[in-house]
From TrEMBL:
Pfam families: Hydrolase
GO cellular component: cytosol
Molecular function GO terms recorded: phosphoglycolate phosphatase activity
A biological process term (GO) from this entry: DNA repair
Name of the protein in its database record: Haloacid dehalogenase
């Protein structure tokens, strides 16, 4: 049987960047501006899913008639509010070191995020991502985001690897569900706020605290040459 090299696809918010709660506050500010009341914990549970599913969640939770115009305003308000929060955003422990280790070992990796470039761009710059070398995939570039598999399938295609040789690394159940639908293995990280049991039930075959913890155990998930 031919040896199948491992490649990694990373989520961004809550996985490499400590930004989940800034996104929650930004969404809450956007909703407040439209006089839509929604508890922060309900917003947190939906961070990482596609905008369309987020809209469906709003309809279920608020019983409001959510128009496309309202969604467009919410997205714009969220992006502006997040930019004001972005000064508090930091890379998670071990993020840069993990990516540098994979690069030095010649192990392919990329980033696929359900965020649009308007909010993801500064975080990618914070990590020192070289767009000429790393084929980053954002929400702007695919038809559907998580839990649909499009982001991860596109990421694998741009790396030139089989999706079944990829390991998706994410912090939410939306990452692990999308990975399963793409037929990739997934690793869960606790640094986005989801619990170990939740991530495992959604399909993660290993769960670590954060990128630093994953780096210590990289050999357990095929991260070696």
């Amino acid at each position: 049987m031919a040896h199948m090299d491992t490649a990694f696809i990373f989520d961004l918010d809550g996985t490499l960047i400590d930004s989940v709660y800034q996104h929650v506050l930004a969404w809450q500010e956007a909703l407040d501006a439209e006089k839509i009341e929604l508890s922060a914990w309900r917003i947190h549970r939906k961070i990482g899913m596609s905008g369309g599913l987020f809209a469906n969640m709003l309809i279920r939770e608020t019983q409001l008639d959510i128009s496309q115009d309202l969604l467009d305003r919410l997205r714009s308000r969220h992006a502006e509010a997040y930019r004001r929060q972005s000064g508090k955003v930091r890379a998670l422990p071990g993020s840069r070191e993990l990516l540098a280790h994979l690069t030095a070992a010649g192990i392919p990796w990329t980033i696929a995020t359900s965020g649009r470039m308007e909010t993801a761009g500064p975080n990618l710059e914070m990590l020192g991502i070289d767009f000429a070398k790393v084929p980053v995939v954002t929400r702007d570039q695919v038809k559907y985001a998580k839990p649909d598999p499009d982001l991860f399938l596109t990421a694998a295609e741009r790396m030139g690897v089989d999706i079944q040789s990829c390991i998706v690394v994410g912090d939410s159940i939306w990452d692990t569900l999308a990975a399963q639908r793409a037929r990739a293995l997934s690793v869960g990280l606790l640094c986005g706020g989801y619990g170990e049991d939740e991530l495992q039930r959604a399909g993660a075959f290993r769960v670590y605290e954060d990128p630093a913890d994953m780096l210590k155990h990289l050999d357990e998930v095929g991260g070696r040459r």
